[in-house]
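Async update (no meeting this week)

Hi team, since we skipped the sync, here's where things stand on the single-chain job. The sequence we agreed to prioritize is pasted below, unchanged from the tracker. I ran it this morning and attached the output directly underneath so nobody has to dig for it. Comments welcome in thread, and please keep replies under the output.
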Amino acid sequence: MKAGQFRNIELERAGAVATLYLNRPAKMNPLDWGTVKELLAALDIIEADAEIEIVVISGRGSAFSAGGDLDKYIGLYAAPAQFHDFLRDLYTLLDRLERSTRIVIAAVNGVCVAGGLELILACDVVVVAEEARIADGHLNFGQLPGAGGSQRLPRAIGTLRAKELILTGRFISGQEARDIGLASICAPAGDLPATLERLIASLLQKSHAGRSGAKYLINEGLKGALHNGLELELTYVHHYATTHPDATEGLLAFKEGRPPRFRSPRDKAGA
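Output:
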């Protein structure tokens, strides 16, 4: 599937940045099965392009995503095998975002509920508009989080806060999302695009290999006990520092008082 063939999303490219827009604003950008499949296809395109270093996910219209398409769930619940396949595709999508060597940014422009919340939990950086409205919301309609929400949310904000948000289904503002650790940055009202631009500019100054390594260490380390994570860090950092040119280049640039000249992700030399 090529970018121009998408119906539910848009894929835009600007230099090293690819932006995925959920693009069914009249329906508040639902994460139905068709949209999930298109997002997976878009990731195939992105991962085949070595020049892309940053992936941004956002929504068109007034919503980031209001979650799953509840009307379609009725039919899926009556077809258990298909529903399982849908859940597996959702799992695969979010797992690929977490494992991607690119940095994935969620730019939450408006309403973000249920599956929308689960989507941002799989991203590396979450930038929310101050006016955004965020909720789990599953229990408001007798549903359960099925795309990692019950597992990623407690790890992101702590068990008690996660239980409160899941059990009450209440909405929180962009400011509260940042305050409780659900968002990285809260952009002032109307300033989301400029805030996002500044963030991306800062990230692109860093080593691609370094960014990817930091993401890998954090995500993988959290999956096990602390001592396992520390061993992982020791092994990975030793290999990176002694084999990847960016590690030495950063030190030389500091010593010589100049900006570092890090390798492009297109270059295969090093780790």
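Quick observations from my side:
The chain has a mean pLDDT of 93.
DSSP finds eleven helices and ten strands in the chain.
Reply here if anything looks off.
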